[in-house]
Amino acid sequence: MAKDPSGFILFPLVVHSFDLVVSSVGILSIRGTRESGLIVPVEDPMMILQKGYSVTIFFAVLTFGLSTRWLLYTEQAPSAWLNFALCGLVGIITAYAFVWITKYYTDYKHEPVRVLALSSATGHGTNIIAGVSLGLESTALPVLVISVAIIAAFWLGHTSGLVDETGNPTGGLFGTAVATMGMLSTAAYVLTMDMFGPIADNAGGIVEMSQQPESVREITDVLDAVGNTTKATTKGFAIGSAALASFLLFSAYMDEVASFAHVPFKQVDIAVPEVFVGGLLGSMLIFVFSAWACSAVGKTAQEVVNEVRRQFIERPGIMDYKEKPDYGRCVALVASASLREMIKPGALAIISPIVIGFLFRILGHFTGQPLLGAKVVASMLMFATVAGILMALFLNTAGGAWDNAKKYIETGALGGKGSDCHKAAVTGDTVGDPFKDTAGPSLHVLIKMLATITLVMAPVFL
């Protein structure tokens, strides 16, 4: 390892400092090309955002290369910094690939969403079937990208020339960490694109409530559709970074167990029945968590619908704009339910690994298998991460695609607003909302939280 490790310690801070700079340059490079007052065709907002992202990525590659040469150069392995710069490049390419793949599956300019919109022509059921199949299919490309990224980064790090006292290569995991930093080196710009979504959505709502002319609503609809795509790309980006980061946290957990138990702990054998059961429980955790998150949305929606119906009966003038609805009541219902309904999934995520690890630790004590608790928890963490990544990709992409299929029909395609086709698409959008806004985004938090809890609680499992 390097004689002076300070460069390796400061490296993440420097990369993320540069992230703020390059993302700011990317954001400032965004310019509309049309003059105000001229009546010309509306530009594609997604193209403008992608130009800014390309500028950000270009500068991110340059600053990342400079940072690795400046901070990761060591006398013992003079070419190691170049390997790590390539690891960063792998991460940056992974981020770009994730953004592009999610855009392909959720933007209505591409075939998948148009096929989904077309399926609405034959009814509500076919729309749901097409949406679910699109979501399931959309997991394939991101998983291939992540797989290539992890292996490439690990081997670039492994062959960097960094060795420990005994001469064993030690750069593999650090290579994966550098790839994760590379992926996050444009995070500020990606978050900016994410913020674009809710702002455009709310603008559309304000335009509708203030009874603006249809031409204004058409512009906000285009922005809203792009916002749905940018929200979906950010969620894909977050899942990709969670996948890379969880691999590191998993390795950190195994190192911690080895240091506490004073025995080597290098691999987990899933051919051992108890360890395999741990994996099954980890996968189950993801599905139960997603189910509870979706059912919470369903229950709360029912409460809100009943409240709105009650207000329509008690205040018939609402529809003619003669009476004002009681907005506060609906907001209070949603806010209190959101806090109340998250207690159960949150408790499940925190308590499960601790209980499972402790129970199998006791079982291992009686059956003469030391480290059984730690091995079962490791297996649980592995399987939960894999299932969580796939589930989150499915939920996020399906939800975004359903929403944009509805938006595509609202542009006048397949009968436009109010048609039977549109009604079927609205059903799909309603199903997609808890997918993309509740269960999907909370899964990458769950993946990271499981890894953190197992890391902190490791001594309990020994």
From TrEMBL:
Keyword Transmembrane: yes
Membrane topology: Multi-pass membrane protein
GO CC field: endomembrane system; membrane
Signal peptide range in chain numbering: none
Enzyme class: translocase
Pfam families (UniProt xref): H_PPase
InterPro entries noted in UniProt: PPase-energised_H-pump (IPR004131)
Annotated TM spans: 6-31, 52-73, 79-101, 113-134, 140-158, 170-191, 236-254, 275-298, 346-364, 376-395
Keywords from the UniProt entry: Ion transport, Magnesium, Membrane, Translocase, Transmembrane, Transmembrane helix, Transport
Subcellular location: Endomembrane system
EC number: 7.1.3.1
GO molecular function: diphosphate hydrolysis-driven proton transmembrane transporter activity; inorganic diphosphate phosphatase activity
Name by which UniProt lists this protein: H(+)-exporting diphosphatase
Organism listed in the record: Cocos nucifera
